[in-house]
DNA sequence: GCCTATAAATGGAACGTTCCAATAAATCAA
DNA sequence: TTGATTTATTGGAACGTTCCATTTATAGGC
C-alpha cells in the first residue's frame, strides 16, 4: 500500500482529465471552476491520496499560513493556558499554530527561531527566554516577519507586547497584605534580568512606599521561579533577624513552594504567614490552603496576542500597539484573615 | 532596514563572487569547498541577512527535518512532561519538533495532521484524541510517513506504541490498597472509549480477582479525566449503599479532584479514604497530603518515543516495535496507613 | 613540458506549485 | 451570421533550492 512516489497536482490532473491549472484552482476554492469539474477533481484527489505540498506553493505565494509560537517553559501550566487561548483564535481563522519550546534556553531559542523562519512562518508569537540578548530578533524584524511578545518584553525593543499590568497587579496585592495589617513584607522569587520581575517588584515597592512601609520593613529575595525556588526564598527570609510576616511571590509556582516550605516547618499559610501569588493558574484555586493570587486572564491575553498577530499579517505591517491586560486580585485563604486594625489610609494610586 | 525582497542563494552568490552551487554546498557543510571560500560565503550570508528556504530545498530533497508532535491536551502537565522528554532527544539530533495541540478534539486533530503533512514532516508522534476513528491515520500511513503513538493506542492499528504498562500499574496499585486492608474498592474516572482506560481498569479488576475481592466490593465510576471529574466520582461513590473506602484513580488529575471533594466533606485523604493516582506528575509529590501514584517515567517514555522515531526515519521504515515502559508505585500519604486486620466492614465513611 | 589525477567550482535541469496571459466554448446583441 | 462579451479552462514561466555532469585550476609523475 505504500504509494511509490508522492502524487502531485499533475497526477491528479491526469486522473481527472483536466489541466494542472484547473486542479490548482480547485485546491484554492476558486469560483471560476464549474462545480461538476471541481467535484471530479476532488474525487481524484481522494482516490489518489494526494497531499498538498505547501512548500512548493509558498515558493510562489510567499505567505504561508503557519504561525509559530515560541514558549519559554511549556511545563509551566501558565504558558499552556496562554497557548490554549491563542489556539482558540487561530483555529477560528483556519490557521495552525506550531508551538516550540525553548526551555528557557537562549541558544535553543535561537535554533527554534531559525527553524521556524526557514519554514517560512507568517508570524511569530514569542515569550522570550531569560537571557535573550537585545539583538536576538533583529534579523527576523529585518526579514519583515511580524513578531509579538507575549507576557515578557525585552529591555529595549519596539516589538509590540501583550502582557498583564504587572506593576498594578503587584501593587494591589501588596496593598491587600498591608490592609491585613502586615508591616514586614517580602517579595519572593524571580531575578532582575527579567523585565517582568522589575515591574512586579516595582509595584511592590511602590505600594510599600505609598503606605509607609519603611525600607527596613521590606525584604527582597531573588530566586528561581519554581517551587524549589520558593522554598529557598522562605528559608532565607525566616533566617533574617526581623523576618517578614507576609510575602508577595513572583508567580504562583514560587508561592506553592513557599507554602510547601511553611508546611515543612509546621506553619500554615494564611494563619502563620500570608502568601500571595501571581498569575492565578488553575491550580491556585484548588490548593490547600487556596492561594490568593493576582489573576491576569491568561487565556484572554493569548487570544489578544493571536488577534494582534492576525491583524499584523493581514495589514502587512510589523508594528502594533502594546496591550496591557487588566489584572485583579483573587482573595482566597492563603493571605489569611485580617490582622488587627487595618488603617488602610489613602486611596489607591494609579 | 526592511530588506526589499528576500535574499536568495543567488544574491549571496553574487555578493560572495561565487556560483549558487557553491553557496548551496557551503550551506550543507560540504567538505568539497575550500575553507576560505566557505567563510567568504558565510560572511555574505551574514551581511545580507539571508534566510534559508527549506520549502524550496525540500522540493528536491524530499526529507525535511521537522517532526510533528500532536498532543491531545497540552494543559495536562503530564503531556508537557512527555513533550519535554522528546525535545531533549530531538535537540541532540538537531531536529526541531513542532508541537500542535488537538484539545481532545478529533476534528481539530484532523486539521492539525493535514497541516503537518502539507508542511512535509518527516515523522509524527501522536497522542491521539479521544474518539479518533480507526481509519484516521490511514492516509498518513499510505504516504509512508512514520508515526508512533505515545501513551495512547488506537483499538486496531499496526502503528507502534510507546506507553507505560498500564495494566501492571493498576494491578500493583490495587494490590497496595488491598494490602492496606481495604475490601471495598473503587476505580474512578476515565471512560471506556479509551484503550488506556480499559487497560488500567483491567488491571484493577484483575487484582481484585487475584485477591478475592468480590464483585460487590468493587465500584467503577466513569467520569471526566480532570479534577472536576474526580470530584463528581467521589460524590457518586459515597452515595452508594456500601461506599468504598479506597479508590484507584484513572490519573492524577482525577485523584486531585477526589482529594478536593473529600476535603469539602471534611474528610481527609489517607486517613478517612485512601486515594491512589496514576502518572505521578510532578505535583503529586507536593500535594497535601502527598499523593500515592503510579510513576510511569513520563519523560523517559518521551525520550524513547523520540528515539524510535529517529530510527524509523533513518531506516526509512514505517514499522517499529511497541515499547511498554516499566511502572512503579510511589507510596506517599494519600493511601493512608495500614489498616491492619481491623475489619473495615464497620464503615467509617459518610 | 605533457599527461593524468585530484580538488574546487559551476551551469542547468528538476522539484510541485501559482498566476498571468491566452485560448476555447458558450452566450448574447445586432 | 458576425462580432463582442462572458465563462471555463489551459500552457508556460517563475519561485529557491539540490545534485548531476561538467569545466577549470592545481598538483604530481615522468
Q: Descriptors for this entry?
A:
350 residues; alpha/beta; 12 strands; six-stranded parallel beta sheet; 43% helix; homodimer; DNA-binding
Summarize the structure in short:
By secondary structure, chain A is α/β, with parallel strands linked by helices.
Describe the structure in your own words:
By secondary structure, the first copy, chain A, is an alpha/beta fold. The first copy, chain A, has helices at 9-16, 20-27, 35-48, 54-61, 77-92, 106-118, 138-142, 166-179, 195-210, 227-238, 252-264, 282-286, 298-314; strands spanning 66-71, 96-101, 123-126, 147-150, 161-164, 185-188, 218-221, 246-249, 274-279, 292-295, 323-325, 328-330. Chain A has a six-stranded parallel beta sheet, sandwiched between helices. In chain A, strands 7-6-8-9-10-12 form a six-stranded mixed beta sheet, with helices on both faces. The longest helix of chain A is centred in the last third of the chain and has 17 residues, at 298-314. At the A-B interface, helix 4, helix 5, strand 2, helix 6 and helix 7 of A face helix 4, helix 5, strand 2, helix 6 and helix 7 of B. Chain A binds a DNA duplex (30 and 30 nucleotides) through residues 6, 8-10, 18-22, 24-25, 27-28, 32-34, 37, 52-62.
